[in-house]
User: Fold this.
Amino acid sequence: MSSPEQSIHTYHCICTQLVLASTSTLESLKTRSSDLSQILPLPDLSSTSTISHYASLTNTVVDIKPTVIRLEDGFEKRYFHKCGRCDLNIAYSLDQSQFEDTRTSSGAREDVAFLIPGGLMSTEDMKSGKDMDAEIAKVGVKAA
Assistant:
C-alpha cells in the first residue's frame, strides 16, 4: 500500500456476509456504461511496484464455467462471483478472450472485477441500521 494511514473500506452482501475490503470506496470507482457495474481493479500482488489501490473479494465463490450474456453488439462471457453464504451474484469477471492482450487465452480475467449494482452494503450503513429490506427488494432476493 502506498501509505500506512490508508483507510480500508469494507462491504457486505445484503445477507450481511463480508465480501469486499478495499482502499477505495465504491463511490470512487468508475462505472461501466453497459450495465452500470462498478469497475474494481484487483492488484497484481506478484508485482514489485508500489500498490496505490488494494481490493480483495472474500467469502465469495467464482463460477468455474462462464455464463454467456447477449448484448446489443454481441456476446460476453462472464464468470460470476457469488456470495459464499446466500449465493447472490455480487460481481463478475470477464473472460480473457475478450481482451486484446489475452485474446488467445480463456478463463476469468483476474485483474479486474465488475461489482453488480445493489448487491453490496458498506459496514457503516449496516452499523447505522440502513433499511436492509429496501436493499434486498432492489435485487429481488430473500433475506437469509
Remarks:
- The longest strand covers residues 74-83.
- Residues 132-139 form the longest helix (8 residues).
- The radius of gyration is 16 Å.
